[in-house]
């Protein structure tokens, strides 16, 4: 359940809020393993311009 919510949060960040997050196999795996916390990590790293740009 947490994995599904993480992927939904990532999709919402990309499509609803317009963040330029690259949806790759790595980002999906991080969300699947980390869930919501993994999605938040990806969003923060993208916002800071460190990764997933």
Describe this structure in words.
The chain has helices at 2-15, 25-47. With 53 residues, the protein is mainly alpha-helical. It has one domain (2-47). Helix 1 (2-15) crosses helix 2. The N and C termini lie far apart (27 Å). The mean pLDDT is 89.
What descriptive keywords fit this protein?
53 residues; mainly alpha
Determine Rg (CA atoms, Å): 10 Å
Report the sheet-strand fraction: under 5%
Quote the distance from N terminus to C terminus.
27 Å
Give the helix/strand class.
mainly alpha
Compute the number of strand runs: 0
Helix and strand sequence: HH
Largest sheet: none
Compact overview of the structure:
This protein is an all-alpha fold and 53 residues long.
Q: What topology does this entry show?
A:
Blueprint: H1 2-15, H2 25-47
């Amino acid at each position: 359940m947490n994995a599904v919510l993480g992927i939904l949060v990532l999709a919402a960040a990309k499509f609803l809020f317009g963040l330029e997050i690259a949806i790759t196999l790595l980002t999906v795996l991080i969300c699947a393993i980390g869930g919501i916390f993994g999605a938040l990590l990806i969003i923060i790293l993208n916002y800071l311009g460190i990764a997933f740009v």
